[in-house]
């Protein structure tokens, strides 16, 4: 049965529930590129019909392409895709990964980053590089938004910078944050991203260095612009 | 109460009943006659509630006034895979409050997929003087502060098991709250905790509890502290290590190997985060006695896994990553003739290309070599009808078969046909099959097979399968013992659901998400079946803001004697019989 027509007939907006972690702008781009949007076409001509996006995978992968085990065919995947315009924003462009559908494959979240990610972290540690260790094997934090009836959860480990995180949040909640400045926070926007740190204080996202943020962020909350005025160093 | 010449005195009946432990049998006893119902309910000590919303605390307490052990399950199984939004429900608090009042002698509480607050833990700690067992499986909502209350107050605690729960880990200090006089610990599982616990307190606790049989540490316990812990508890039967890595030093290694060798009763091993392969031989001394081995976090390659596994001739249960590959599974099949359960997890579930040489062949080998194999969970990237056929014929004793072909709708990679026949062979030959999870390209035919042959099937999980309502109809009308059915992303709709409405009252629950069930049909179902709760979940707004024919996002139907629940969040609506939407 052709999945495309099923989706269209039923009018299901699967995209709304898809967990997509694309680079800035990549979501729209891929909608156009892969307009069939049939994530799971089982055509015999390809071994898998999973849509490739620039889902951020383990950031460490690009560093270690030389050290990959010979058996692993992931080597083929780990190459800088310089044709991708999004590269300009990030030096360590991750290899393309499967477009992720919520809850598939059916593994518990604490198992998800077990194999490859652990290997990369081990190598990083061996090289004396800093590895950010989260709780368990991912760094899932809850994200709430003023006025939204339900929470979401995101894996902070998947992002490398504030820019990526904010783009993802703006995508997920269909809001904009505006321009960040140390003095004025997120100026000219309806919403601002805030987070609760280890001490239980609510801070404005962006004030501290990224690494410090990652290790101290317990949960995120998107608040109305006016609410953010009294936070942190403002 | 009228007594005939043929009836036994109550005390005798009670004594006889005390030997009947299975819930099903207890239920049967209670249906014999009114007096047996009465006697049974007063002497029932243990109750299992598979769906916490199927019954309410007052109803439970009224019927069973003298319970010592209660098990509750909350969220639907698909919550494990993030398909159930936060706030859905499964709150333990109302139960714990009610039980605190009604069962002062309660000894055991086991919760699965429930939301447990620190307040609830504090109530437990203070209300039950003889509290012995707390198992929180895949629960969330509490912090280490709640654990501190348990540690400080439960003098008779035997078991504290937090398996796979999400605990807000504020500090490792809580472990020190077990008083020095406390020595009754038999089982401790803290593997899910993120932070370091107070290691000194842990060592002292472990060495002063002579009956400690199970100890599952968390990743933060460093390897070089393990020997001390083991020496403090040489009677351990089950151990979960912490991180299994350290600077490679010969003295650390020999210390560890010696400590393991001293654990003559060790039967089960788990943990093994961050494994440094050169430390694996330290467990070789105990391999020949192991019956259970969980290496599902061990990111080591096939040769190291093979060396380890081939020494475990008594192994009954193996959980491992797909690094073991087909070669490793072949060795497993040759070495572990007592194997009953195998789980192979994917090391790179989101990668597009296979990263390891693990195919259907590995599973075929094990099915051939291990005559007692009855429980399988297998993630792989290719499958064929031929392989499934072979597996089915090799292992008619299979009772649990869960196959996940990672790419949805993958056909038989040899013939490019659907995998209907393969799974059909499984249900046909494995006559005692109780649990089945499907994957790959599947048409309505596979459901026809399941309905025809799956007579003992109790739980079925379906994703991205089927062509039409006929598929769902086959399952609902054919599987006589079906209790739990969970479906996602299948073209199943109203017809099959409504035609089999009565069936739903014989089941625990039905989950359908991203299918084609319309809002209108949900309303009809809710109206027709007052003893079902028909819950519609929609995160994009109230379903009645769209046409009745619109499909609902998620549907969860379950039988209940407690009526619609009152603790639903804003995105859950119950379809009840006054045909008005009730939004809580």
Task: Characterize the structure shown.
- Chain A is built from 6 helices and 9 strands; from the N terminus they run H-H-H-E-E-H-E-E-H-E-E-E-E-H-E.
- Helix content of chain A is 21%, strand content 15%.
- The model of chain A is unreliable at 1-98 and 130-137 (pLDDT under 50).
- By secondary structure, chain A is α+β, with helices and mostly antiparallel strands.
- A 5-stranded mixed sheet of chain A has the order 4-3-9-7-8, with no helix packed on it. In chain A, strands 1-2 form a two-stranded antiparallel ribbon. In chain A, strands 5-6 form a two-stranded antiparallel ribbon.
- By secondary structure, chain B is of the alpha/beta class.
- Chain B has a 21-stranded mixed sheet.
- The model of chain B is unreliable at 579-584 (pLDDT under 50).
- At the A-B interface, helix 1, helix 2, strand 2 and helix 4 of A face loops of B.
Overall average pLDDT of chain B = 95
Strand order of the largest sheet of chain A: 4-3-9-7-8
- Overall radius of gyration of chain A: 19 Å
Query: How far apart lie the N and C ends of chain A?
Result: 57 Å
Overall 3D geometry of chain A?
globular
β content of chain B, as a range?
A: 15-25%
Strand content of chain A: 5-15%
Question: What class do helices, strands and sheet pairing of chain B give?
Answer: alpha/beta
Domain PB1 (chain A): 138-230
Region (Disordered) (chain A): 23-129
Organism (chain A): Stylosanthes scabra
Subunit structure (chain A): Homodimers and heterodimers.
Task: Describe what is shown at a glance.
The complex is a heterodimer of chains A (234) and B (584). Chain A is α+β, with helices and mostly antiparallel strands and 234 residues long.
For the structure shown, list the relevant keywords.
heterodimer, A: 234 residues, alpha+beta, five-stranded mixed β-sheet, two-stranded antiparallel ribbon, 9 strands, disordered N terminus, B: 584 residues, alpha/beta, 21-stranded mixed β-sheet, 21 helices, 23 strands, 17% strand, disordered C terminus, AUX_IAA (chain A), repressor (chain A), transcription (chain A), nucleus (chain A), Auxin-induced protein (chain A)
């Amino acid at each position: 049965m052709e999945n495309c027509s099923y989706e269209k007939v039923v009018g299901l907006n699967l995209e709304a529930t898809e967990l997509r972690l694309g680079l800035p702008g990549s979501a729209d781009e891929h909608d156009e590129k892969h307009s069939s949007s049939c994530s799971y076409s089982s055509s015999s001509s390809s071994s898998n019909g999973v849509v490739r996006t620039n889902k951020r995978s383990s950031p460490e992968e690009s560093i270690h392409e030389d050290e990959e085990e010979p058996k692993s065919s992931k080597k083929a995947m780990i190459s800088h895709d310089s044709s991708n315009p999004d590269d300009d924003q990030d030096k360590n462009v991750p290899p393309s990964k499967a477009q992720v559908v919520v809850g598939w494959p059916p593994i518990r979240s604490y198992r998800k980053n077990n194999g490859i990610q652990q290997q990369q972290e081990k190598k990083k540690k061996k090289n004396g590089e800093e590895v950010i260790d989260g709780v368990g094997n991912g760094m899932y934090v809850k994200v709430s938004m003023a006025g939204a009836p339900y929470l979401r959860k995101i894996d902070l480990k998947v992002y490398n910078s504030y820019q990526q995180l904010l783009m993802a949040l703006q995508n997920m909640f269909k809001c904009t944050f505006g321009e960040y400045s140390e003095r004025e926070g997120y100026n000219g926007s309806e919403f601002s991203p805030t987070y609760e740190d280890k001490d239980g204080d609510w801070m404005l996202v962006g004030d501290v260095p990224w690494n410090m943020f990652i290790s101290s962020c317990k949960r995120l909350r998107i608040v109305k612009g006016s609410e953010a005025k009294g936070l942190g160093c403002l | 109460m009228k007594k005939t010449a043929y009836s036994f005195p109550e005390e005798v009946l009670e004594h006889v009943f005390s030997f009947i432990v299975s819930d099903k049998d207890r239920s049967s006893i209670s249906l014999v006659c009114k007096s047996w119902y009465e006697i049974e309910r007063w002497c029932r000590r243990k109750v299992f509630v598979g769906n916490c919303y199927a019954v309410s605390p007052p109803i439970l307490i009224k019927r069973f006034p003298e319970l010592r052990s209660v098990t509750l399950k909350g969220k639907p199984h698909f919550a494990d895979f993030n398909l159930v939004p936060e706030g859905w429900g499964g709150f333990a608090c109302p139960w714990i409050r009610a039980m605190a009042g009604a069962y002062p002698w309660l000894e055991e509480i086991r919760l699965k997929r429930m939301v447990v607050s620190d307040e609830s833990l504090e109530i437990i700690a203070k209300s039950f003087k003889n509290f012995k067992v707390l198992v929180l499986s895949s629960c969330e909502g509490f912090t280490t502060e709640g654990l501190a209350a348990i540690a400080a107050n439960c003098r008779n605690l035997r078991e504290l098991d937090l398996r796979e729960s999400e605990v807000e880990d504020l500090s490792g200090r809580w472990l020190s709250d077990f008083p020095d006089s406390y020595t009754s610990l038999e089982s401790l599982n803290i593997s899910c905790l993120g932070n370091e616990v107070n290691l000194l307190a842990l060592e002292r606790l472990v060495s002063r509890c002579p009956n400690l049989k199970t100890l599952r540490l968390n990743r933060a316990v460093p390897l070089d502290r393990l020997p001390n812990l083991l020496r403090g508890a040489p009677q351990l039967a089950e151990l979960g290590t912490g991180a299994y890595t350290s600077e490679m030093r010969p003295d650390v290694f020999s210390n560890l190997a010696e400590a393991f060798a001293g654990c003559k009763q060790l039967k089960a091993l788990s943990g093994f985060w961050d494994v440094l392969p050169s430390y694996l031989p330290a467990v070789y001394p105990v391999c020949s006695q192991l019956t259970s081995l969980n290496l599902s976090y061990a990111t080591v390659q096939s040769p190291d896994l093979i060396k380890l596994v081939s020494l475990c001739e008594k192994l009954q249960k193996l959980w491992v990553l797909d690094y073991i590959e087909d070669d490793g599974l072949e060795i497993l099949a040759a070495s572990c003739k007592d194997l009953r359960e195998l789980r192979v997890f994917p090391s790179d579930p989101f990668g597009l290309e296979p990263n390891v040489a693990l195919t259907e062949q590995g599973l075929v080998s094990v099915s051939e070599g291990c005559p007692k194999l009855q429980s399988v969970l297998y993630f792989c990237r290719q499958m064929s009808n031929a392989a499934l056929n072979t597996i089915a014929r090799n292992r008619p004793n299979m009772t649990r078969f869960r196959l996940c072909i990672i790419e949805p709708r993958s056909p038989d990679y040899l013939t490019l046909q659907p995998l209907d026949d393969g799974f059909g062979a499984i249900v046909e030959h494995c006559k005692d099959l109780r649990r089945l999870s499907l994957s790959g390209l599947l048409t309505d035919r596979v459901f026809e097979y399941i309905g025809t042959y799956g007579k003992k099937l109790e739980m079925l999980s379906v994703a991205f399968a089927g062509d039409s309502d006929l598929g769902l109809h086959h399952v609902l009308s054919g599987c006589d013992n079906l209790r739990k059915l969970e479906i996602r992303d299948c073209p199943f709709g109203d017809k099959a659901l409504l035609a089999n409405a009565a069936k739903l009252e014989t089941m625990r629950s039905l989950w359908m998400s991203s299918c084609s069930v319309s809002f209108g049909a949900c309303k009809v179902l809710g109206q027709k079946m007052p003893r079902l709760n028909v819950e519609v979940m929609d995160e994009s707004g109230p379903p009645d803001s769209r046409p009745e024919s619109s499909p609902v996002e998620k549907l969860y139907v379950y039988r209940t004697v407690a009526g619609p629940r009152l603790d639903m969040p804003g995105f859950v609506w119950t379809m009840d019989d006054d045909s008005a939407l009730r939004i809580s």
